[in-house]
């Protein structure tokens, strides 16, 4: 940590001595801010007016205290950063192109979705004007008092701050300050042998960025079954979703249309008014799947209500049980049948 980390050991006791300095330092740099705008001599200025002016946008963003978290790729940076942030009341983090608030992705597209490593770096430092504008808007709309930015080098952190019109970091934390050499060695070994990357948000938020790329989607099924049986989860609260980038050569899991259709039939069997599924089709999109389904309805039921409920139930169930991102669910009633009852 800049201004006090040198000379401290990397033992657990040494790391505990470092962290209290962070809150004391941040209190000197944090400035009062509000979520709907900031104040000038003429009173509160709204978000739209701020964003319409580069000068006002820069002024608003200058109110955010920046903490840099630096470490080489594959050393457990994301996992450590979320722990340090949580212990020091830092609620917003920028990591690999994503703005994260607690367990929620606020804005951005993860650089780990980039087709090449070079493009991944470009996305992570917000070289593209559109990406940087989107991120600046999100920061102005949320106006965090403190923002932690993760990077692999001091130069990378400086470029991110420049491209997002942010102050240069007021505090620097290095991975060596908060982890041991053995912990970093294990993290590097996992990256090299398994191609795994960690993003500090739970899978329910990651789905929209990483449909089809979870290392163990079936753990979600096991956790749900345990919950239904009243069994307490064994995973700690700090557990994070582990994903592979698209440029990894280790492959990904897949699920057949037949399996999805079976899941759909199970989901809708308790919806009164549906006679049967007459056709089922999936179409792969850039960031997920579009599903089209035709059903036959029993005469005498409210068709609009049934179709709406079917659409919502199918989309929610497939995302929950398979981790596949559903872009759209199109449900159509193609015929009416009379009930035998």
CATH architecture of one domain: 3-Layer(aba) Sandwich
Give start-end ranges of low-pLDDT stretches: 1-18, 203-208, 233-239, 246-251
- State the helicity in percent bands: 40-55%
Quaternary organization: single chain
**Strands across the major sheet, in which order?**
6-5-4-7-3-8
Mean pLDDT: 75
Sketch the topology as an H/E string, one letter per element: HEEHHEHEEEHHEHEHHEHHEHEEHE
**Dominant shape:** elongated
Instruction: Report the span from N to C terminus.
Output: 74 Å
Q: Could you say which structural class the secondary elements and strand pairing correspond to?
A: alpha/beta
Instruction: Give the percentage of residues in beta strands.
Output: 15-25%
Q: What's the main sheet like?
A: 6 strands, mixed
- As for the CATH topology of one domain, it is Rossmann fold
Tell me how many strands there are: 13
Radius of gyration: 24 Å
The total count of helices amounts to: 13
CATH class of one domain: Alpha Beta
Protein model, in words:
The structure is a single chain. The strands form four sheets. The chain has a six-stranded mixed beta sheet with strand order 6-5-4-7-3-8, sandwiched between helices. A three-stranded mixed beta sheet has the order 11-12-13, with helices on one face. Strands 1-2 form a two-stranded antiparallel sheet. The chain has 341 residues and is α/β, with parallel strands linked by helices. α12 (257-268) packs across α13. Among the domains are: 12-30 and 64-194, Rossmann fold; 257-337, Alpha-Beta Plaits, CATH 3.30.70. The model is unreliable at 1-18, 203-208, 233-239 and 246-251 (pLDDT under 50). The chain has 13 helices and 13 strands. It is elongated, with a radius of gyration of 24 Å. The longest helix has 20 residues, at 303-322.
């Amino acid at each position: 940590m800049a201004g006090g980390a040198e000379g401290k050991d990397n033992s657990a006791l040494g790391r505990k001595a470092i962290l209290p300095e962070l809150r004391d330092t941040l209190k000197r740099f944090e400035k009062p801010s509000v979520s709907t705008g900031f104040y000038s001599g003429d009173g509160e200025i709204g978000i739209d007016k701020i964003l319409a002016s580069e000068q006002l946008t820069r002024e608003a963003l200058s109110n955010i205290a920046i903490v840099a978290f630096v470490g080489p790729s594959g050393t457990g940076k994301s996992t450590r950063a979320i722990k340090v942030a949580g212990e020091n009341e830092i609620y917003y983090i920028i990591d690999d192109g994503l703005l994260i608030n607690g367990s929620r992705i606020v804005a951005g597209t993860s650089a780990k979705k980039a087709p090449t490593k070079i493009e991944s770096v470009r996305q992570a430092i917000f070289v593209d004007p559109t990406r940087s504008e989107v991120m600046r808007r999100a920061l102005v709309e949320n106006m965090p008092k403190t923002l932690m930015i993760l990077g692999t080098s001091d130069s990378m952190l400086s470029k991110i701050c420049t491209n997002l019109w942010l102050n240069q970091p007021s505090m620097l934390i290095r991975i060596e300050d908060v982890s041991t050499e053995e912990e970093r060695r294990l993290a590097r070994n996992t990256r090299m042998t398994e191609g795994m990357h960690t993003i500090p948000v739970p899978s329910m938020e990651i789905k929209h960025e990483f449909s089809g790329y979870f290392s163990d989607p079936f753990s979600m099924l096991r956790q749900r079954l345990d919950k239904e049986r009243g069994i307490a989860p064994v995973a700690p609260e700090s557990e994070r979703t582990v994903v592979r980038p698209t440029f990894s050569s280790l492959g990904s899991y897949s699920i057949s249309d037949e399996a999805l259709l079976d899941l759909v039939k199970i989901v809708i069997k308790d919806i009164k008014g549906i006679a049967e599924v007459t056709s089922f089709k999936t179409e792969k999109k850039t960031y997920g799947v579009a599903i089209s389904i035709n059903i036959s309805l029993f005469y005498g039921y409210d068709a609009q209500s049934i179709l709406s409920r079917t659409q919502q139930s199918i989309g929610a169930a497939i995302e929950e049980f398979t981790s596949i991102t559903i872009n759209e669910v199109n449900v159509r009633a193609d015929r009416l049948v009379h009930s035998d009852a």
